[in-house]
Amino acid sequence: FVLVADPNTGKVLAIANVDSTNKKTGYWALSQLMEPASLSKALVVAQAIENGKTTPQASHSCENGNYRFGDRVYHDWKEKGWGTLTTEETIAKSSDICSIKIGEKLGADGLVKMLEDFGFGTNGS
Fold first, then answer.
1. Residue 74 phi, psi dihedral angles, 5° rounding
2. CB within 8 A of 89, min separation 6: which ones?
3. Alpha helices in the chain (DSSP H)
4. Distance between CA atoms of 49 and 67, rounded to whole angstroms?
5. For residues 18 and 93, is the Cβ–Cβ distance under 8 A?
6. Which of 75, 89, 102, 106 could be 85's S-S partner, Cβ–Cβ 3.0 to 4.6 Å?
7. What is the rounded CA–CA span in Å between residue 2 and residue 118?
């Protein structure tokens, strides 16, 4: 499915549904729950490139699929573990670990700025 919304208001402008099972009717896309993780990865990488913290060709260690951050261990959701990926490959393969590591380069303040730059949050108001 595809949803198109006005980025300034959030108003839904268009919806397209394709149901290969022929079990759903109407605008069922509006009822789907989605995790924002994959979108977040692209935003983190875009901000890191913008801030000079990485380049599209830079290599990042994916820790062979296990990365401890704080008291949690993270894993890449698709693969048992990559050795290294470029920034471009991080997005193409949707690597959780390499995205986290790129986010670490931004730091907490950089991540807050990323959210503000992309229109999330209150922008200090």
1. -105, 150
2. 95, 98
3. 37-50, 87-92, 96-117
4. 22
5. no
6. 89
7. 20
In residues, how long is the chain?
Answer: 125
**Which residues are paired to 15 by β-bridges?**
3
DSSP bridge pairs for 73: 68
Going by C-beta distance under 8 Å and a sequence separation of 6 or more, which residues neighbour residue 30? 3, 12, 15
The residue with tokens 């229109």 is 119
Q: Is 102 helix (H, G, I), strand (E, B) or coil?
A: helix
How many alpha carbons lie under 13 Å from residue 66 in its C-beta half-sphere?
Answer: 1
For residue 80, give the amino acid letter.
K
- Residue matched to tokens 């951050």: 69
Regions of the chain where pLDDT drops below 50: 124-125
pLDDT value, residue 125: 46
- Which amino acid is residue 95, in one-letter code? S
Provide the token pair at 7.
């980025």
Q: What share of the chain is helix, strand, coil (3-state, %, to 5)?
A: 40, 15, 45
